[in-house]
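We modelled the chain as a single entity of 119 amino acids. Its sequence is:
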Amino acid sequence: MASIIYALIAFLTWGIGITFEAIAARKLELKSFVFWGFFLGFIISSFYAPFAVSQLSTLNLALVGICYLIAFFIIPGTIFYYEALKIGNPSLVGAIGSSFPFVTVILSVFFLKEKLNLL
């Protein structure tokens, strides 16, 4: 019974969050909205930094390059997502935008030769 309640809470908070994102995207200018979103995300995630100092020894130039490559694709994707929230139906855009695990599984099966199992 508890798992059903937790699933309903996750479902409601997901829907409410996308609704608030759509409201904010429609009221704010897109560039400032994306900037402040990334900036506040940076501030919130920086509270974790003191606990991760010991893991900085694993950082190398290739990993930094991969991070920049990922950021190169994340920023335009985020701009397109918020533009879609601005002009489209938030529940439809949110459902399509949240379907990334499906794409990830398909890519990992075909390109990385991963095997799917029940677990």
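As a brief sanity check on the tokenised model: The first helix runs from residue 2 to 27. The chain has a mean pLDDT of 87.
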